[in-house]
DNA sequence: TCTGGGGTCCTAGGACCC
DNA sequence: TCTGGGGTCCTAGGACCC
């Protein structure tokens, strides 16, 4: 198997950059993107804003104290979706092997394309320049033989960085990084790894495997391999979502059931519209609820057919919601409805046609079975049982 | 110590079928 | 009639990421 060349490309402070791309007068300013809850929480900050100590999760008023000339803008998800699609389209001109990892990042296999360039870095430079010229978006690029190394590489040098991470550089460049910077290791796992003296990515390899296995269980070998620079370079080109969800957090707990229901309905209206726009239906409906006392719970049901219309989803969710009826956790602070097990509408219709054909075959079979049953009384018993079940 | 809303993947037990 | 292994699906919960 020959060595692949994978690029990981991600847009620097995407939300803030998107607003600057739309309104060039914001260029060079300390832009902060706010979400209108709990006093304007900052969800993204331009590098100029970060320079003044402003970080995400801050409240706008705190940011103003740090830097009064800060430029607040408000979240605009339509803008992000639009630019995300343009980003994807631009990268598509180089390769069909693209994996959309999130709204602002892709993995792309450029093994073939890179042969057309005199120097490997020329391709990265060209992509970076086109992103700036055509979309006014700054990107980071990591170049490596697999997805994990490419991802780690693109994080090494921000913003507007281009970083190559070769397999032979794993010990010198990857191993010294703190374990919390390893993609896939999060806040719950870090303290447990610290307990077994794993503080850097290299420690994952240096510590006895048994100790690592005690913490990471089945995923231990996977992460040790990653630390050794061994990882997948399979590009998942499927861009259709696997689930669509709609959720809300309430700063003030809701105590009226009818009000909760109306918020649920509102979410489901949005959810089903999105599903129809994406030409998908779902087979599983999941409903989650959070209460004032911090308890959260989820219920899901899988149907034997696919749906995407508001009324049917709402009826299903009401059944799930009903399962929490007699619990007393105080008011409701969080609701979430998710449609999963998605399938393209056209595929479902094809299957329905096949299914119809099956039913016809089944009926033919049953008639024959009846002949058999008459001759074998024992089997007739089964038929009665079967009929009884059908009544249910 | 941590905002809110959008996702993905994994695990473990139980049910069911072969 | 009983036992057991293997595979798949469903459900609830958790971890992680952007």
Mind sketching the topology for me?
Blueprint: E1 6-11, H1 14-22, E2 31-35, E3 41-45, H2 47-51, H3 60-66, E4 71-74, H4 77-92, E5 98-102, E6 105-109, H5 120-135, E7 139-144, H6 147-155, E8 162-164, H7 170-174, H8 189-195, H9 201-206, H10 209-216, H11 220-227, E9 243-254, H12 257-277, E10 280-291, E11 296-307, H13 310-322, E12 332-344, H14 345-375, H15 377-391
Parallel strand pairs: 2-4, 7-8
Antiparallel strand pairs: 1-6, 1-7, 2-3, 5-6, 9-12, 10-11, 10-12
Helix pairs in contact: 4-5, 12-13, 14-15
The protein binds a DNA duplex (18 and 18 nucleotides) through residues 10, 14, 35, 37-38, 41-43, 56-59, 75, 77, 101-105, 183-189, 217-219, 241-249, 284, 286, 296-302, 336, 338.
Please tell me about this protein's structure.
By secondary structure, the chain is of the alpha+beta class. Helices cover 45% and strands 22% of the residues. It is built from 15 helices and twelve strands. The protein has helices at residues 14-22, 47-51, 60-66, 77-92, 120-135, 147-155, 170-174, 189-195, 201-206, 209-216, 220-227, 257-277, 310-322, 345-375, 377-391; strands spanning 6-11, 31-35, 41-45, 71-74, 98-102, 105-109, 139-144, 162-164, 243-254, 280-291, 296-307, 332-344. The strands form three sheets. Strands 5-6-1-7-8 form a five-stranded mixed beta sheet. A four-stranded antiparallel beta sheet has the order 9-12-10-11. Strands 3-2-4 form a three-stranded mixed beta sheet. Helix 6 (147-155) links the parallel strand 7 and strand 8 (162-164). Helix 4 packs antiparallel against helix 5 (120-135) and helix 12 (257-277) packs across helix 13. The radius of gyration is 27 Å and the shape is globular. The structure holds a DNA duplex (18 and 18 nucleotides).
């Amino acid at each position: 198997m020959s060595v692949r060349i994978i690029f990981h490309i991600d847009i620097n402070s995407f939300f803030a950059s998107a607003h600057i791309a739309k309104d060039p007068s914001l260029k060079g300013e300390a832009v902060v993107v706010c979400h209108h809850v709990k006093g304007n929480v900052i969800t993204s900050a331009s590098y100029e804003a970060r320079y003044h100590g402003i970080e995400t999760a801050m409240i706008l008023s705190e940011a103003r104290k740090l830097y009064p000339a800060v430029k607040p803008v408000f979240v605009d998800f339509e803008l992000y979706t639009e630019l995300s699609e343009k980003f994807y389209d631009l990268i598509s001109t180089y390769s069909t092997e693209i994996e959309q990892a999130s709204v602002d990042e892709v993995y792309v296999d450029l093994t073939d394309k890179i042969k057309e360039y005199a120097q490997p870095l020329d391709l990265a430079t060209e992509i970076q320049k086109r992103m700036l010229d055509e979309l006014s978006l700054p990107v980071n690029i990591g170049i490596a033989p697999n997805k994990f190394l490419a991802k780690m590489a693109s994080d090494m040098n921000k913003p507007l960085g281009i970083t190559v991470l070769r397999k032979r550089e794993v010990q010198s460049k990857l191993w010294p990084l703190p374990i919390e910077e390893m993609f896939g290791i999060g806040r719950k796992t870090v303290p447990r790894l610290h307990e077994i003296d794993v503080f850097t990515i290299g420690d994952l390899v240096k510590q006895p495997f048994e100790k690592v296995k005690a913490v990471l269980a089945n995923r231990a070998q996977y992460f040790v391999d990653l630390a050794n620079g061994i990882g997948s370079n399979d590009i998942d080109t499927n861009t259709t979502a696997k689930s669509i969800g709609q959720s809300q957090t309430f700063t003030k707990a809701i105590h009226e059931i009818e009000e909760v229901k109306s918020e649920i309905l509102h979410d489901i209206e949005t959810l089903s519209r999105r599903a129809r726009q994406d030409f998908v239906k779902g087979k599983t409906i999941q409903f989650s609820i959070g209460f004032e006392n911090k308890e959260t719970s989820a219920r899901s049901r899988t149907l034997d057919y696919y749906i995407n219309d508001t009324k049917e989803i709402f009826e299903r969710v009401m059944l799930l919601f009903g399962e929490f009826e007699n619990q007393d956790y105080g008011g409701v602070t969080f609701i979430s409805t998710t449609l999963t097990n998605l399938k393209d509408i056209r595929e479902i219709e094809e299957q329905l046609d096949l299914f119809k054909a099956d039913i016809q075959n089944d009926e033919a079979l049953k008639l024959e079975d009846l002949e058999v049953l008459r001759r074998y009384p024992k089997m007739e018993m089964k038929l009665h049982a079967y009929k009884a079940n059908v009544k249910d």
